[in-house]
Amino acid sequence: MSAVSHLECARCAKQYEAGRVYNLCACGSPLWVRYDLKRLDAARWREQLTARPPTLWRYREVLPVRDQSCITSLGEGCTPLLHARRLGEKLGMASLYLKDESLNPTGSFKARGLAVAVSMAKELGLERLAVPSAGNAGGALAAYAAQAGLAATVFMPEATPLVNRMECRLFGAEVILVPGSIKDCARALRERATSKDWFDCSTLREPYRLEGKKTMAYEVVEQLLGRVPDAMIYPTGGGTGLIGMWKAFEEMQQLGWIGERRPRMFAVQASGCAPIVRAYAQGALQAEEWLDPETIASGLRVPSAIGDFLMLRALRESRGGALAVEDGAMLAAVRELAEEEGVITSPEGGAALAALRRLLADGHLSGLETVVLFLTASGYKYVEVLDALAKSPGN
Ligand SMILES: *Cc1c(COP(=O)(O)O)cnc(C)c1O
Ligand SMILES: [Zn+2]
């Protein structure tokens, strides 16, 4: 049973009753879902966890869905945490782990957030869902909407990778191509949403995707047998995963599952679109829009994010950091992960490895630490990238 108690604004702390349809707070900021964690028998739940089916719904106590019959699931979550022995040895690390999110339905971790968002949409009686997406969010929304029997509309930049466009159409979603970036798509969606009666499922404008994505942190702790890693390296676009996992660590502390120590969180962006990295370096509380975003990592092509202040807060509170990597370094890392560890990840996953190299070289991380890299999507969806890699030197 869900222990959801209410929603709360992340900026002004205004409270909202659970079980109603919301986008943002009246002040224009994202809403957190809050739980009555004290009501839970956390120790007993933790013992039962591993006996539950291997999906993210094993954490249903800290997920917002109350009516179990509304759960829409394609088997998301409980992805492997791979011990990267060969790569670790090469980098002088004994405890390097890869959270391989490519095994989620639709091949990316967007499935986590949209499984929970679509389940909640069903519970709340919404019928038409819409999302802007430069990559994997559209396909994930379309797949879960198909299973739930809801209508989906996806606004995509014209430059969206082929497979991402095709999967949306196959799942029966309406695809609207927009010139420009995901920001232009979001604007186009908002212009039409009211007249079309579409519910806007954009990152952090919808309160439940974050809840789905936070389960990555619960899983990492479960998979490390209760240990908290020293650092996590996360390819960051809209920031749902980063903000969600930071919230999950807070919840796990309150549940008594972990102690005071939390991991250092490192955000990785592309050097052609790095608004959070720039704001972090300037000591800013919010990020300015990045003009002319350009990178092959479509999941990182997010020029401005409504959750910027929450990302920056999590990075600072965790004493982590933010760094940008070049597209070329991402591609080299994709190849390396394939050759050394047998995984074909997306450029965003490659970015995490490229960032780790820099953090080790600069002395921000040492080989003695337990580090988790998030490989956020399957490289198999990025046929354009695989094609370029196959033609490049080194083959
Ligand atoms: C969306 C996406 C990201 C960024 O995720 P956020 O949690 O929104 O920051 C990273 N990698 C891939 C493959 C994505 O699709
Ligand atoms: Zn508010």
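^ pyridoxal-5'-phosphate complex. Residues 81-108+212-391 form a domain with the Rossmann fold fold (CATH 3.40.50.1100). Residues 27 and 97 are 40 Å apart (CA to CA).
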